[in-house]
Amino acid sequence: MRPGAAASRGGGPSRAPGEERKLTSVAASDTYEGESAEKPQDLPRLWHVTLSVSGAEAPLKEVRRGLEQLAHDHPFLLTSRYANDHAEIRYWEEARDLHDAAAVALRLWGEHRRTAGLPPWEIVGLEVIDRQTYHQRIAEGYGSPPATPVGVHPY
Fold it and tell me: Tens of pLDDT along 16-47?
């Protein structure tokens, strides 16, 4: 167990210090057995993505310009909020599943840092939820409201 980590909640056997936990994998063919089991659809779905980045302070004008360039290059971006040491980008991603949407989101900042002139910040947070969950949260008064106005705005 790494320092500061909580003990396992699974109630499984304890491991000796330094002993590695064994992982088990399930083959894709084992996931859905029989003709009657439902298989996931490979059709793309909409996922609401919130990407949070943070790092050393940068001039606000440069942060704004970089985020505006990113939004211009990728018009799918709904809104960006920024300060001189952090930013949040919210957008809809069309992907087959959550894994694909998250993979695209995790590459977004790094792949476009140079072309958009973004600060050399690291990703510090990622939330990917499906469309139904997003709308359910809004209806129940939880979570961030829909991004209005769309665009790049200071915190």
Answer: 555 555 544 444 444 444 444 444 567 899 99
Q: Are strands 122-130 and 151-154 parallel, antiparallel or unpaired?
A: unpaired
Please check whether residue 147 is in contact with residue 78, taking contact to mean a CB–CB distance below 8 angstroms: yes
Of 96, 122, 127, the closest CA to residue 110 belongs to 122
Task: Give the number of other CB atoms < 10 A from CB of residue 124.
Answer: 12
Residue 24: other Cβ atoms inside 10 A: 4
Contact 105/51 with Cβ under 8 angstroms?
yes
Q: Which of 113, 94, 117, 114 is nearest to 104 (CA)?
A: 94
Sign of CA dihedral 135, 138, 143, 149: positive
Contacts of residue 136, Cβ cutoff 8 Å, sequence gap at least 6: none
Inter-helix orientation angle 98-116/60-73, to 10° = 120
